[in-house]
Amino acid sequence: MGMVATAEFIAGLPKAELHLHIEGTLSVEMKRRFAVRNKLSLGDASFASLQVPEGSGDQALDIQQYKMFLALYFEGLKVMQTDQDFYELALEYFRQCRTNNIVYAEVSFDPQAHTDRGVPFGAVIEGLGAAQKIAREALGIESQLIMCINRDLTLESAVNMLEAACPYRDKIAGLGLDNVEDGHPPNKFQTVYDAARDQGYRLTAHCDVDMVNAREHIRQCIHDIKVERIDHGINVLDDHSLVGAATERNIHFTACPTWRKGDPKPRRVDRIERMRGLGLSVSLNSDDPGYFASGYMNHMLNAVAATGRWDNSVVADYVKEAFAGAWIDDERRAVYIRRVDDYVAASDTQCAT
Ligand code: HPA
Ligand code: ZN
Fold first, then answer.
1. Which residue's CA lies nearest to atom 2 of ligand 1?
2. Number of domains present in the structure of the chain
3. Does residue 2 sit within a domain?
4. Of 280, 262, 185, 69, whose CA–CA distance to 271 is shortest?
5. Is 339 within 8 Å of 322 (Cβ atoms)?
6. Which of 209, 234, 287 to mutate to test the pocket of ligand 1 (most atoms within 8 A of CB)?
7. Ligand located closest to 211 CA
8. In the chain, count of helices (H) and strands (E)?
9. Which CATH number belongs to the domain containing residue 232 in this structure?
């Protein structure tokens, strides 16, 4: 291994992001702006400013923190009410993509969290779609949408979500599963996944890190609901047979080596390395950059590279894995991967002179 990848190398790499909750990009400034415009009062709790108590790695403490984060995330998204809010939210993310040289993004959103408050599905799609159009035409960024089932709501609610999405089928690439995992196994939504597959949606689901029943949830994702990707999914390492099944089915894992305020360093780096070492396809993603101290892609990658002592070629390998896991056709995939290879080759030449 050579030198740790430089910030300059990381900044210039053309990147993809596959695991990003658009509601999780809400900054304190945007939250205030939307609240004022929509005449709402604001709670002032902000996960980004909360210090995680010492003892990170303790399962009970981490699950408690995870639930606190999700509560604040759902509290925060209540300021989003109109298509304009979703437009501005997504456009700011795409500007961040530009800054971070993310050229392709798959953006998750939580329809039920909005429609349950009376926000029309169409307003969410209109706003996000308008931002996607600007991203494509003015910023050179391609993107697709993933709608996530809020897993702690009922099966019926998820069925309704899939039906509400029907008029927008061509604007949504995939189906995901997120929010509080405890007590809400993937196969609770077996029928929705089967119906979505029939309608041509691509399929993913969260198996968050170190949850209760983590292995069983991963097993269900692979063998029961039959996803193509797993969001996080790091506990696949806990079971040889799952590693085998994931490898055989070429399941991609969207890992998120994020950290919270108070964490000493990026989390999960060693386990991500082990996954990759076993030949699993793994990408690196920012998840909820408005809420986590890790922030956006380049900031995160720099710290992860430093933690793992990764050189340019290792960082480039993970970036190529993101394109490998992307829901795009193989022709476009090859173009993106070629861009990464060309960039790496050009950087190597510079070093040699
Ligand atoms: N896990 C589950 N649900 C979520 C997350 C997450 O990290 N972020 C936003 N919704
Ligand atoms: Zn997530």
1. 179
2. 1
3. no
4. 280
5. no
6. 287
7. 1
8. 14, 8
9. 3.20.20.140
CA-closest residue to ligand 1 atom 7: 287
On whether the CB atoms of residues 284 and 314 are closer than 8 A, the answer is no
- Ligand 2 centroid to residue 254 C-alpha, Å: 9
E strands present in 173-288: 174-178, 202-207, 229-232, 252-255, 281-284
Instruction: Give the atom of ligand 1 at the shortest distance from the alpha carbon of 23.
Output: 9
1 within a domain of the structure (yes/no): no
Instruction: Judge whether residue 161 has pLDDT over 80.
Output: yes
- In sign, the C-alpha dihedral spanning 94, 96, 101, 106 is negative
**Ligand 2 center from residue 351 Cα (angstroms):** 37
How far, in Å, from the CA of 2 to the mean position of ligand 2? 32
Residue 184 lies inside a defined structural domain of this protein? yes
Reduced to 3 states, what is the DSSP secondary structure of residue 279? coil
3-state secondary structure of 146: strand
| pLDDT number for residue 46 | 62
Q: How many residues does the chain have?
A: 353
Judged against a pLDDT cut of 90, whether residue 53 lies above it is answered with no
Domain extent at residue 204: 7-352
Q: How far is the CA of 58 from the centre of ligand 2 (A)?
A: 20
Amino acid present at 129: G
Return d(Cα 328, Cα 278) in angstroms, integer.
Answer: 25
Does residue 284 sit within a domain? yes
> Could you read off the pLDDT of 295-306 as tens digits, one per residue?
999 999 999 999
Cα–Cα distance for residue pair 340/317, rounded to 1 Å: 9
Angle at 301 between CA 257 and CA 325, to 5 degrees: 70
Q: How far apart are CA 219 and CA 215, in angstroms?
A: 6
Q: Cβ of 14: how many Cβ atoms within 10 Å? A: 16
Going from the Cα of 347 to the center of ligand 2, the distance in angstroms, rounded, reads 32
How far, rounded to the nearest angstrom, does the alpha carbon of residue 210 sit from its chain's CA centroid? Answer: 17
What residues flank ligand 1, with Cβ below 6 Å? Answer: 21, 24, 70, 73, 178-179, 206, 208, 287-288
pTM above 0.85, yes or no: yes
| 189 DSSP 8-state letter | G
Q: Which residues surround ligand 2, an ion (CB under 5 A)?
A: 287
More confident residue, 221 or 43: 221
